[in-house]
């Protein structure tokens, strides 16, 4: 259910090029004109520029770069992905909060979004830099009816959704590095962290964490060589984060429904078309050691196939890849 604020924003966005009268808004929203005026004042406080003319009504001039639930949900064209958003200014990790909500029964498609993470995490206990305001730090809860061994497919599906969402919202092309990185010109722009709660034969919930450097202008020294942001790759032009999120949710939902209906095949083809690591000699660092070889492809489960110099093919379930 949309809140009044979401409905109001959706109306203003739809009528960006004209004025919409206070009378019309109050009729459509079913609230008084004073209430409309109050909601508009609230939006202005958040940084929305709204022009109000006596006889003509209201017109939206510009939107701030906020990612509050109503910023994301107004005009969001999905059925369930992102339709419930839990927003926090600061969290330890959106993964932690999402896990808690999932255990408490949160619906599929619920998203946790934060402006800042104090303890953002990567794989294997690594740190994920999540400074305030510039990025998108979020976790999505899904509940697919699949066996646990297929869960890695969801990381790959997410990567495809993000690449397509970024393209739709900004026109920028990205590449995927198996299993969980999205790169531009060889530098990391997005990291994905998939965590699962499961019984032996059935997934209960999968929490997909996504960390995206959107309007980041600079990185700590340790990341300067390996990280970049959409803003940096967009000639310094700021990206609207709410619109980017909408595009990613919409792409995710389309792919996810396709996946549940017809399996991994179509997703796999898309993934391969965006992958940088396939068909090359790469080194995979796993917990048990290092293997260098030719990256032949991925299996239907999303496992990487690496052929070493002796012609033996290894199945790599999780690793860091060096190209
Ligand atoms: C990842 O791990 O790439 C998964 C990152 C997932 C982050 C999201 S944010 C929302 C949700 N909540 C969380 O707490 N986490 C998820 P991994 O492949 O292990 O890569 C981690 C490595 O990436 C670090 O060791 C750094 O080298 C590098 N790194 C850290 N912060 C970065 C950043 N902001 N941009 C690019 N690279 C970064």
Overall description:
- With 323 residues, the chain is of the alpha+beta class.
- It folds into 3 domains: 4-62, Winged helix-like DNA-binding domain superfamily/Winged helix DNA-binding domain (Arc Repressor Mutant, subunit A, Orthogonal Bundle); 69-274, Bira Bifunctional Protein, Domain 2 (BirA Bifunctional Protein, domain 2), CATH 3.30.930.10; 281-322, SH3 type barrels, CATH 2.30.30.100.
- The mean pLDDT is 95.
- The N and C termini lie far apart (46 Å).
- It has helices spanning 4-14, 22-29, 33-45, 69-73, 94-103, 152-170, 241-262, 265-274; strands at residues 49-53, 57-62, 85-91, 111-117, 136-142, 175-177, 181-184, 187-198, 203-212, 281-286, 289-298, 304-307, 313-316, 320-322.
- It is elongated and about 80 Å long.
- A hairpin with a 4-residue loop joins strand 8 (187-198) and strand 9 (203-212).
- Helix 2 (22-29) crosses helix 3 (33-45).
- The structure holds biotinyl-5-AMP (BT5).
- Residues 93-95, 117, 120-123, 126-130, 137-139, 180, 188, 191-193, 209-211, 213, 223, 227 line the site of biotinyl-5-AMP.
Overall number of strands: 14
Poorly predicted ranges (pLDDT <50, ≥5 residues)?
A: none
The chain-level mean pLDDT equals 95
Terminal residue distance: 46 Å
> How many separate structural domains?
3
Radius of gyration: 21 Å
Question: How many DSSP helices?
Answer: 8
What's the name of the CATH homologous superfamily of the largest domain?
Bira Bifunctional Protein, Domain 2
Q: Which ligands accompany this protein?
A: biotinyl-5-AMP
**Biggest sheet record:** 7 strands, mixed
CATH top level assignment of the largest domain: Alpha Beta
Helix-residue proportion? 25-40%
Query: Strand sequence of the main sheet, in spatial order?
Result: 3-4-5-9-8-7-6
> Strand-residue fraction?
25-35%
Based on helices, strands and strand pairing, what is the structural class?
alpha+beta
